[in-house]
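Lab notebook page, bench 4
Experiment: in silico fold of construct C2
Operator: M.H.
Input chain length: 180 residues
Purpose: comparison with the prior construct
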Amino acid sequence: HSLPVIYAFLTRKTQALYISFLRKIKECLEVFPKSINSDFELAFINACDKVFPGTPINGCYFHFKQSMWRKIQDVGLSEDYRADRKIRSTLLLLQCLAYLPEKDVVSAFDELKESVKKYYVAKTIIKRGRYNKKIIERDEPMFSISLWNIHDRLMDDMPRTNNCCESWHNSFIKQSSINL
């Protein structure tokens, strides 16, 4: 379960400001979180990694899906998405990669990639592979698979989003004996 206990209005979204803010929280509350849920803001993720080293940082699944939709729009696939059921299904399956065990994500991605018309969508999710003497080398993605993968969180009954209202509502429905 998650419960927001601290809200902050910060003047900028810089790594330095986030580090200062997180250190103050750590100092005042003497806390060391078990895990951190975040959107996909690199400055905040890097700050969390510095202030709370070794603490798992999880990306919000809602923001993951939202980011994928924006990328679909950015690369000009939104018309194909709307018009072509196969393209839509394939692109929706990309979101489902987050549900797989981490070890299976790359191979499943490679299978899906073959179905997508415009390969550069692949570059932005996991990055494309390069062939070098029959060994596939992959560029480092902007966001690691472990950040956006929710498989273990689902298995551990942990929230997949940082939207506390949605998390609370899902938990309430799950625990409720009334079948709405």
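Observations: The CA atoms of residues 10 and 17 lie 8 Å apart. The radius of gyration is 19 Å.
Next step: discuss at group meeting.
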